[in-house]
Design goal:
It contains 8 helices and 7 strands, in the order αβααβββαβααββαα. The chain is an alpha/beta fold and 213 residues long. It has a 5-stranded mixed sheet with strand order 2-1-5-7-6, sandwiched between helices. A two-stranded antiparallel ribbon has the order 3-4. It is globular and about 45 Å long.
Amino acid sequence: MTAADFLPARHTITALRRAAKTCQGCDLCYRGTQTVFGEGPAKARIMMVGEQPGDQEDLAGKPFVGPAGALLDRSLLEAGIDRSQVYVTNAVKHFKWEQRGKRRLHSRPSSSEIEACKPWLEAELEAIRPPLLVILGSVAAQSLLGRKFKVTQERGKFVESPWAERTIATFHPSALLRAPDPEARLEMRRVFVSDLKKVAKALKSLEHHSTSA
């Protein structure tokens, strides 16, 4: 069984979000508090795909509201992108975690869990049809671009994909938070914002092309 067994007949964002609440396409539905579906404009020009909900996202039922989300907000602002105009979601819709004392720590989803959840992500992409797709981190890249795609090697480059007119991969904001020292965090943040500025520039180019066509 996968998420495909729970997809609604109509793939609107509203219908998908409602149906996803009862998804049991993999065992992660028993780990997370709730399904954390994507949020943002139904016809967003930019769609960002992360890995999976974190602890705070799991409790709130909203994507990118924890520390990584706050960092993403600041970085988008610095890059000149309005977060309210971006649709944000995750490759996996439930929080996978391990208990460490009183804390629930993130655990990487398996390949089978990523694949089981992929129908939701594909349906979101089908509903929104974003001109620009930003892939955040290796789990999202594995889901949409295949296991051989390496974010560390291809980061910051626009690549061909069936999902959007322009697709680019970069770090997940949580990777910046896990950097080993302040100097490394500063450098990763600089690179991350630089990649987002490429997205902002590409958006302006697409909008200019659209108005002049």
